[in-house]
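User: I'll paste a sequence; please echo it back and then give the predicted structure.

Assistant: Echoing your sequence first, then the prediction.
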Amino acid sequence: IDQLEQLLDNTPKVRQQHRAFNAELASLKHSVEETQRRLPKELREHEFIEQVRLVAAKSGIEVGDYQMGLVTELESSSQAELSFQCKGSYASICQFLDEIDHLARITEISNLQIESADNFHSYPVQVTFVLYFGGATHDRSMKGEVL
């Protein structure tokens, strides 16, 4: 009877913890779904290159050559490096990088080199982006499997 009374006394606390855990789980599932939506199944580098060119034109950056780098397969996704030679003002470089950061696709910068120049209105820039793709989920319920 004492144990039952202790359990009953703890019920409100346990319910509150359960609600908090459920809310955290829902948030994590939403985050996973959002990440999966931003992670294309295929590399689709030409799509990204076109987006970079559009963002560059909007930002006032001149984009020159690009070079495809290493493609690496990870446990749950793959990644590829893509380097661009660019030129622009400091403000346009900042705007360009901010716009790239807001693209739907998950990317990150692995290398950024800005060279000083005699012309303070146009700096040579080399930027290497890491593109993620082919993500696989480990959540059995999202795969339609039984736990």
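The chain has four helices and four strands. The longest helix spans residues 2-37.
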